[in-house]
Amino acid sequence: xxxxxxxxxxxxxxxxxxxxxxxxxxxxxxxxxxxxxxxxxxxxxxxxxxxxxxxxxxxxxxxxxxxxxxxxxxxxxxxxxxxxxxxxxxxxxxxxxxxxxxxxxxxxxxxxxxxxxxxxxxxxxxxxxxxxxxxxxxxxxxxxxxxxxxxxx
Length: 153
Fold this sequence. Notes:
By secondary structure, the protein is mainly alpha-helical. It has helices at 2-36, 47-63, 69-92, 96-116, 120-139; strands at 40-41, 44-45. It starts with a helix and ends in a 14-residue tail after the last helix. It has one domain. It is 76% helix and 3% strand. The protein has a two-stranded antiparallel sheet.
């Protein structure tokens, strides 16, 4: 009887580990690539493209919402770097719990900007990603294959 419950328990742990790994891979890749696309214009990646893209986004948010230009500009200019950093950390398993939480907060900030300009469809898409971050945080104790594990992992 105890052999059955022990093997069932091990099977559940493997399932949770697999589920977390899928979420970690998806969220890591999604976040990393979302950051990298901020540096792209005409199939070319550069810091000048990044500055131009982010200034355009910040101006659009400020012009059509209650968010002041200094706030949208500050968020926009750091956004790509934050997304690349958190995406790489999630993907590689570097301080996964912190990377998931902070990456999720970046997506909440993105959602807030879209809420301010009344972009409901975009908010819904980002909301799904925030939900995935939340689920990943509940499964993070099943994190395996991490380069730098959290102390609680």
